[in-house]
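User: Some background: our group keeps a shared notebook of sequences we're curious about, and every so often someone picks one and asks for a predicted structure to add to the entry. Today it's my turn. The entry only has the sequence so far, pasted here. Could you supply the structure so I can complete it?
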Amino acid sequence: MCKKNKLTIAQLILENEKVYKTENEIKENILEIWQVMNESVNNGLKSDGILPGGLNVPKRAFKIHQKLKNTHTIDPLAFVDWINLYALAVNEENASGKRVVTAPTNGAAGIIPAVLHYIINFLVKKEDKDKVILNFLLTAGAVGLLYQRNASISGADVGCQGEVGVACSMAAAGMAEFLDASIDQIENAAEIAMEHNLGLTCDPIGGLVQIPCIERNAMAAMKAVNAARMALNEDGKHYVSLDSVIKTMYDTGKDMQNKYKETSKGGLAVNYIDC
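Assistant: Of course. Here's the predicted structure to add to the notebook entry:
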């Protein structure tokens, strides 16, 4: 459809949304979504203490943020710490029952904000921010729609590949769009991201969205960036299509034993030492 109509993915989705709302309303709504994402990052960076629920998991975002702010030596790999930090911050907010954006779910809420927050804070000029946000989220949303329509975004249905995996795929597409990727490269980025989340189980300890969920968002945010970079180094041609990997994810989820799908009856939920 993009090629037929000579539109980018973001432009195609914007035109589609105009069936329901004016362009100004759409942009205002998207920027409102980003504002909530942004607030969830910033609030998470300010919050210290222990996560509720009984596992006594300490919040880490606050201390990591203080360390990064006060580091004055040049570290070429610091971008990894910043992206990890933003994802941890959002998911600690989620684990505390605070406000986040389902992107596409609460358990995977930190991945898209982490990648986009890094872009906005480190890679773009102030006057370009709104345009970057709109194109990123429209592109990511397009990929999310494909998963929601053709497979599932529920951990209870297909495991965490349907939550963190989908969010990773969406973020990879958004990142690729920001990097001026072609339509084929964006599709490739989304496919790569999901291909390497296939089979991901949902096995939270104690039924809480804390372990392994919080760290898993940070890992997936970095994986999304890597997928986009890998796709940019190719010409868009690839063996496995996004449609194929979406079907594979769904089939894999249906084959997965129920104990690995948000029941806390398998995996890390039962194989950990309570110190």
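Suggested note for the entry: The chain has a mean pLDDT of 96. The first helix runs from residue 2 to 5.
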